[in-house]
Design a protein that fits this description.
This protein is an alpha+beta fold. Helices cover 64% and strands 14% of the residues. Helix 5 packs antiparallel against helix 11. It comes from Desulfosporosinus fructosivorans.
Amino acid sequence: MSLKKLFIEKRKELLPAFICLILFLILIILPTGYEGAVIYKGTDRCQAEVLSVNNDTVIDTGLIRSGEQTCEIKLLGGRFKGQVTSGYNALNGSLEADKIFKEGDRALVVIDYSWDTILSVNMIDHYRLNKEIILVLCFALFLILVAGKTGARAILSFAITVLLIWKVLIPSYLNGYNPIYVGLAVTLMIIVITLSLVYGFDRKMVSAVSGSALGMFVTCILGVIFTKQFLIHGAIMSNSESLLYSGYQNLNLTQVFMASIFIGASGAVMDLAVDITSAVNEVVQKKPEISWREAAMSGFNVGRAAMGTMTTTLLLAYSGGSIALIMVFMAQGTPIYNILNYKYVSAEIIEIIVGSFGLVSVGPFTALTSGLLLTVRGNNRVYSDRMKRDYEG
């Protein structure tokens, strides 16, 4: 390989990583606009060790606990580091939200203070940040060991995706921007970033991005149509109704739900687009003289084989979080006729079926774009060079 060609290949590989790294640094310092929440002013947050517990005011009623647990704690950080004080853990009778501390536990606490005096200490939950960091670092190390440079790029893509959701998507929703347009823009940006890190800036990336984007648009359009037809309100999303009571009455929760449909399916859409693009590229590399129709048909055959597992993947991804609800229906003997008419079940059906529509459509879209893009110019030149050598020989 000539130096010029080697330089071009390295540039295609390193330029996306460099651009994404710059974007990552920008997103890190970009404020969300919601950092200075009034309810957290005049407070300090830190880790605390539970020295002893007092459950005298805790009321046990079967599985439910209510009342207040008082703990003697030692503050392990913040402006009051080292001080021993009392912390309070309010119990609301909810197994989902309540937590019980015991001696030796580590807790995340919020300290309400005035000058140098502690007014009260609220015990938020068990402290898990250190374990979460260890888990993330272990995964990152494992990914790099298995996938090498590709693993490092995947970590960068993952980090940028998290930051785009946290610092761009969510604040835009809260600021009243149209959730569908913002969701499309952010998801398309994630697709471009992820696939550029996989392929670099070349025809394979353009092919995979085109197929993914077309599949995502199909999911978006069908999601909007069937959400309206099924008369689904966005408050069906867990905790979303609380936003309306927190000063955000103008939020269009239904549009947020519509956007969540194609955002949730975009990962599987990208996965299938990459599979088809890579398969078509491999075919073209092995047989440069192949026509775009033959290449597209090869990609379509690969996509057709993958569609069965991908649609099942969506079904398992969405239904996995609803196992408890399904168990409740069965335990109560609820007729299937009733179950399918409940709005929260209908919402799940929309997410699964509409997401599957996007997956099925991305197959032919990506097969067509990869067939058209990967069999032009560069590969035709390879075929012409081969024909020329055969003729001269």
